[in-house]
Amino acid sequence: MAIELTEVAAQHVAREISKRGKGQGLRVRTKKSGCTGFAYVVDYADEIDPQDHVYESFGVKVVVDDESLLQLEGMVIDFVKTNQLNQGFEFRNPNVKDMCGCGESFSI
Q1: Residue 88, H or E segment
Q2: How far apart are CA 42 and CA 100, in angstroms?
Q3: Is residue 28 within 8 Å of 93, Cβ to Cβ?
């Protein structure tokens, strides 16, 4: 299963990489955190390691390390704006069994 960006998310990432002047795509991983187990970590992928898994949506690469793949497989990443001040990535992850009350962490 792939990890996908919506068209809006891909456009946002492409703009930000262009402004930044470097980067091969969006790196997404998980880390142990919070009251339910895991949290998402999003950064630029300046380099792609041989063991990374690379997916492409609308011309933008999504890079995932081997350890995080099981928690992220099948996920769709969107970029949403709730108003002029609040915007960010929204993760639609079919593997999530539970989320903490604040939405910062999840369990598989």
Answers
A1: strand 87-92
A2: 19
A3: no
Which structural domain range is residue 47 located in?
4-103
Residue 97: partners with Cβ closer than 8 Å, 6 or more residues away? 106, 107, 108
Q: Is residue 9 part of a domain?
A: yes
Its pTM stands at: 0.86
Q: How many CB atoms lie within 10 A of CB 106?
A: 22
Which CATH number covers residue 87?
2.60.300.12
* Domain count across the chain: 1
Report yes or no on 72 lying in a domain: yes
Task: For the chain, 108 residues long, give each residue's pLDDT as a single digit of tens.
Answer: 799 999 999 999 999 999 999 999 999 999 887 666 888 899 999 999 999 999 999 999 999 999 999 899 999 999 998 877 889 999 998 888 766 655 566 666
Q: Give the closest residue to 71 by CA, choosing from 55, 85, 91.
A: 91
Asked if residue 108 belongs to a domain, the reply is no
